[in-house]
Write a structure and sequence with these properties.
Layout (H helix, E strand, L loop, with lengths): L4 E6 L3 H12 L4 E7 L3 H10 L4 E3 L2 H4 L7 E4 L6 H10 L3 E4 L7 H13 L4 E3 L7 H11 L6 E9 L4 H5 L14 H5 L1 H11 L2 E9 L10 E8 L4 E7 L9 E6 L2 E6 L2 E7 L27 H16 L7 H20 L3 E2 L1
Parallel strand pairs: 1-2, 1-4, 2-3, 4-5, 5-6, 7-10
Antiparallel strand pairs: 7-11, 8-9, 8-14, 9-10, 11-12, 12-13
Helix pairs in contact: 1-10, 4-5, 5-11, 6-9, 9-11
C-alpha cells in the first residue's frame, strides 16, 4: 500500500471544494491527484486551485488511472450509484456525499457491488459528529431520559430561487431525488433516527409551496419509532430567514434539546446535572447559505476512510447505515403521494 492514499473527486460543484480542502489537510496520508466534471471549465478551475495533475470531463477516463485509491462522489445525488459502481468495478474505494442515493434499488446495487469488489463504501453525515449529538446519544444509552416518548427534528432552511436555478439538476426528482428533506434535511433525518432508533411508520404532507420546482420545499411528518416513541420532522427551504436546526428528545425522566449553536436544555428527573459545555459545533449553521459550513466534518470522513482502508475495517458510516435516512425519506414521499401511513 502506498505511503499516501491517492484521492480523486468526481463532480466539481460546491461540495467538491470541501473534499479537496479536507484531503489537503490530511497531506501526510493523502493527496488529491484527479478531478472530473462534465464541465471541463469547472474541473479545471478547481484543479488549478488545488494543484491537481489530472483533469477530465468524464469520470470513465478518470477511473482508468491505476494510481487512484479512493474516489469521492460529489455528483448530483441521482448519479451516485452510477459512479460508485463504476469506481468499485475499477477497484477504487468510494466516499460518497449524502444522500447515498435517491432510489432504493440503486442503493442496494451500489452496496452489493462494493461488497463484491471488496472495496470500502463510506458516506458523509457530519451532523453525527456534533458534540451535542454525541452527548445526547450517550445520555440516551445511559438511560438518563428513561423511556423515550418523543423525538423531534426541525430542519427549516432557506434556499433562494437563484439557488435552484444554479444547476439544472436542483429541485428535480430525477437527479435531486427530492427537495427540502432529501437534499438539505437528510442530515437531520439521519440524526434523529440515529438518536431515537429505527422508525416503524410515517404519515406526511410534502409540497412545493413557494418555489417553482418539482419537489417539496415544505414538509411536515408524523413518525412512530420502533421503540414506541412518537415524533415530528419539519423540513423546509421555503421560509425566510432560515432557522437554527433543532432537535428535541423527550423521555419520561428527562429532556434534551440542542441545535446548531449548542445545548438548549439538559434536564433529568432523577438528578441535577449541568449541561455539557460545547465549544465546537462543526460550523453547521448553513440554514441560509449552503457554503457556510466548516470542513471539519469532511476532514473526519477523509481520515476515517484512510483508517478503514489501512486497517481493513468498516467506515464510520457504511452503505447499510447511510441508506436508512434515504429509505425513511422515500417512505415520507410515498405517504405524501398516497395520503396513507407508510410502514417501513
Amino acid at each position: 500500500m502506498p505511503s499516501k492514499l491517492r484521492f480523486a473527486i468526481v463532480g466539481a460543484g460546491v461540495i467538491a471544494r470541501f473534499h479537496a480542502e479536507s484531503i489537503l489537510q490530511k497531506h501526510a496520508d493523502a493527496e488529491l491527484i484527479a478531478i472530473a466534471d462534465p464541465s471541463i471549465e469547472k474541473a479545471r478551475t478547481l484543479g488549478d486551485e488545488f494543484n491537481v495533475r489530472h483533469i477530465f470531463d468524464d469520470y470513465e477516463t478518470l477511473l482508468k488511472l491505476p494510481e487512484i485509491d479512493v474516489v469521492c462522489i460529489c455528483t448530483p445525488s441521482g448519479m451516485h450509484s452510477e459512479v460508485s459502481i463504476a469506481a468499485a468495478q475499477a477497484g477504487k474505494h468510494v466516499l460518497c456525499e449524502k444522500p447515498l442515493e435517491i432510489n432504493a434499488d440503486k442503493m442496494t446495487a451500489m452496496i452489493e457491488e462494493c461488497r463484491k469488489q471488496r472495496v470500502k463504501l463510506g458516506c458523509v453525515f457530519q451532523r453525527r459528529l456534533m458534540p451535542a449529538a454525541l452527548h445526547a446519544r450517550q445520555a440516551i444509552q445511559d438511560g438518563k431520559l428513561g423511556k423515550l416518548v418523543m423525538g423531534n427534528a426541525y430542519l427549516k432552511y432557506y434556499r433562494s430561487p437563484e439557488y435552484y436555478g444554479s444547476g439544472g439538476w436542483r429541485g428535480t426528482w430525477n437527479l435531486d431525488g427530492g427537495g427540502a428533506l432529501m437534499n438539505q434535511g437528510v442530515h437531520g433525518v439521519d440524526l434523529i433516527q440515529f438518536l431515537m432508533g429505527d422508525v416503524s411508520s410515517v404519515f406526511a404532507y410534502t409540497a412545493p409551496l413557494v418555489r417553482s420546482i418539482e419537489v417539496e420545499d415544505t414538509a411536515v411528518v408524523a413518525i412512530k419509532f420502533k421503540n414506541g416513541a412518537f415524533g415530528v420532522i419539519q423540513g423546509s427551504t421555503s421560509i425566510y430567514p432560515g432557522q437554527e436546526t433543532r432537535f428535541e428528545l423527550h423521555g419520561d425522566k428527562g429532556t434534551i434539546e440542542f441545535g446548531d449553536n449548542g445545548i438548549k436544555q439538559w434536564s433529568f428527573m432523577d438528578h441535577e446535572e449541568e449541561a455539557p459545555v460545547i465549544h465546537d459545533t462543526l460550523g453547521l449553521g448553513s440554514s441560509s447559505n449552503p457554503q457556510q459550513i466548516s470542513i471539519e466534518g469532511h476532514c473526519f470522513y477523509i481520515d476515517d476512510m484512510i483508517r478503514a482502508i489501512r486497517e481493513d475495517k468498516e467506515p464510520h458510516i457504511n452503505g447499510e447505515e447511510a441508506r436508512k435516512s434515504v429509505d425513511l425519506i422515500l417512505a415520507i414521499y410515498e405517504s405524501s403521494r398516497s395520503g396513507k401511513e407508510i410502514m417501513l
